[in-house]
Structure formats: structure tokens, C-alpha cells
Amino acid sequence: MISAIIPAAGSSLRMNSKINKQFMSIAGQPVLTRSLLPLKDFVDEVIVVARRGEEDLCRECVSGAVKNFQIVLGGRSRQESVYNGLKHCTGEYVMVHDGNRPLVSADLVRRVLSAARKYGAAIPALPVVDTIKKVCGDRVQSTLPRHLLYAVQTPQVFKRSLLWQAYTYARENNIEATDDSALVEAVGHPVYVVQGEMSNVKITTPDDFRWVQDMFRYCRRKGSSAIRTGIGYDVHQLVPGRKLILGGVEIPFAKGLHGHSDADVLIHAIMDALLGAAGLGDIGRHFPDTDPAWAGARSTELLARVVDMLAAKGLHPANIDAIIIAQTPKLSPYVAEMVSVLSGITKLDADCINIKATTTEGLGFLGRGEGIAAQSVCTVEYSREEE
Ligand code: MG
């Protein structure tokens, strides 16, 4: 059995932000949640160490990633916080992982874990590429031998009995360290090093945050692009006694479109394209015409809900192209107003929304004026959220 301790009680002094960095959102999910997700298949229990007053925020973030967890209160230092967490661990091995390292890969977790099972203590580290100097004030004191220097990351994994021994020894001897491995080293147990990952950065400064955000945006996972595309198609019947509403604009005409909602065929096609691009199904799934809640609904409001659903996944519309297929009436005089309505809802610039209208030269049911159809292709992309 494996326990994980996530120290999340830090104060984010270097982030210049009111909100603690582990609660800041990256592509729709808090940093803390994202730091836990890569661990969830490897650990049996998670102990998250929170700052007083942030327990509920922590609970919310952690429940989005794992089921079996406890929130415990942190101490004055990272070391004290991990110690508080360690008291609650029951696993044979303990994995300590920073709550602000969301880019750790499952592969790295697996490699550290298997080294720890073999050697009792394992950490990921990377050889430093820059020359490291000891500096006092603005003067160099000495140059350290680079070939011996490694930058250490988390997760670090230890046999629980060993980590407990190390923490007890540190408390008895007033040893303070910035990582757990140092305490294990202090009791003389060898610590095995596995190759870390360049991308496994700890978010400490606003620059780190932006960099990690870009990694999620552009390299989210293998085979996934930051730009996604969806297609939408809809037809409604033209009947007397109904208003004709297209793109949220009421168009004077003898007939209107028949449907459960306001039957705005253009917006329906656009909604389906946006949902499709986001992998969220279709409008039938979210606004079924069997549900009285949507009777007479304004499609502009439904579109606003779709935009919110995208935002919840960290996505926003990037462009909309659509075509209305109608024999009559002539629609070109209304296109600019439709674009303006759509721009208001989607927050897209007007030049990212393109509405076209065509006829079928009198052919088929559309040509006979029995209905109006619309098609749309939309792209969506991952949002850049500013801190
Ligand atoms: Mg429809």
C-alpha cells in the first residue's frame, strides 16, 4: 500500500497573487488537482497538508482528483507540514509530491516508485546545465563543480518506516532541510536517483505559471491539439404563425420556424459545432426537446450556456463559420446584426464570426421553402487565464 503526502500549505510569496498558487486554475482545473491526477493510479491514500483556513478549498481541489484522502493542517515550515502528514500515513511506502508540480508524468511516478521499492528511498533529479556559483551579496565566492550537481524534484518516495526514522532524527537534532531526501540522507540511508523531467517544474513565480499554462495549452497530452474543430447541422420546418428568428435576430417574414425552442436553426448549428469541438455531445443531450424547461427557450440563452460549458473545460470559441440555406427571405441585410448578437454571447471579435446565406436554386425541400437549414464549423481553443 502506498500513501501520498501533498504539502499544500505554502504561502506563494513569489507569485504576487492574492490566491495561493495551488488553487489557481490552469485550463479549467486548479494546480493542486492537476498535481494529484498523475498520482491517482499509483497511490491508495492521499494526505493533503493545508494551511489553516484553506481546508475547504483543498478538499474541493483534491476531491476532483482522488477518492481516498484526508486534509490535515500544516506546520510553520514545509518540513513540519510533511511531518504532520506523515503521522496520518498507513502505507508501506510514502510518496511526497509538491502540490504545485502539475506536469509530473505517470512515467516518472512509476520509475521513482519502482526504484524506491528496490532501494527504500528514491528521488527524481536532473543534472544542472548552468554553472552554479556561490554568491554573497553581489560577489561570487566560489564556483561549484557542475558535474556533481543535480536539481532535485518530487515525487520522492521512501519506505514509511525509514521516513519516520528520518523525521524523528531531524526533530531530535534540530535538522532543517528543504526536501525529504535530505533528512533520509542525514540518518545515513542511501537515496537512489532516477532521471527527472525538464517539464516537471515547480510553480514558484508568475513566469513558471505562464510556462506551465502554455504546456497545458499546447502540449496537453500526446495527440491532442490546442485547436479543436466541430461541425453542426440543423433543419427546421417553416410554418405560418411563428416568428422567424435567425442568429438571435427577428426577421420580418410571413412564416417562422417550427420547434420546441425559438427554433433558431443557425444558432442550433453553431451550438452543435461548439459542443462537437469540445467533445461535449450535442444540443439534444443538453437541451432535450422532451424537457419542458426548454419550451420556447431563446436560443441565444442556450448558446450562452454552451459557451459556459466550454469555459468549464478550459475552452473558448476561436472562430465560427456558418451558412444558412434558405430560398426566401433574403437574409444578407440581417447578417451584420446576427454577427453582432453572436459576438456579444461568444465574446469573439466580429471578424472571427462569418455568416453566409445561400439558396438551393429552388431545388429540394429547402428550395420549395418548406424549411430552413444551417451548417456551421467552429474551432475552439484552450483559454489563457490571467492570474
Ligand atoms: Mg434545432
List low-pLDDT spans.
none
Q: Determine and state the CATH class of the largest domain.
A: Alpha Beta
How widely separated are the two ends? 38 Å
Biggest beta sheet summary:
8 strands, mixed
Determine the structural class based on helices, strands and strand pairing.
Answer: alpha/beta
* Tally of alpha and pi helices: 12
Q: Beta-sheet strand percentage?
A: 25-35%
Number of strands: 19
Mean pLDDT: 92
How large is the radius of gyration? 28 Å
Shape: elongated
- What share of the residues lie within helices? 25-40%
Summary keywords:
387 residues, alpha/beta, 2 domains, 8-stranded mixed beta sheet, 5-stranded mixed beta sheet, 31% helix, binds magnesium ion
Give a summary of the structure in a few sentences.
By secondary structure, this protein is α/β, with parallel strands linked by helices.
Please describe what this structure looks like.
- The chain has 387 residues and is an alpha/beta fold.
- It has two domains: 2-216, Alpha-Beta Complex (Spore Coat Polysaccharide Biosynthesis Protein SpsA, Chain A); 227-382, 2-C-methyl-D-erythritol 2,4-cyclodiphosphate synthase (60s Ribosomal Protein L30, Chain: A, 2-Layer Sandwich), CATH 3.30.1330.50.
- The chain contains twelve helices and 19 strands.
- It has helices at 31-36, 55-63, 78-86, 106-119, 160-172, 180-186, 206-218, 265-278, 283-286, 299-312, 335-346, 364-367; strands at 2-8, 25-26, 29-30, 45-50, 69-73, 93-96, 121-127, 133-136, 139-143, 150-152, 156-159, 192-195, 227-240, 244-246, 249-251, 255-257, 315-325, 353-358, 371-382.
- The strands form five sheets. Strands 1, 4, 5, 6, 7, 10, 11 and 12 form an eight-stranded mixed beta sheet that branches. A five-stranded mixed beta sheet has the order 16-13-19-17-18.
- The longest helix is centred in the first third of the chain and has 14 residues, at 106-119.
- The mean pLDDT is 92.
- Magnesium ion binds at residues 234, 236, 259, 265, 268.
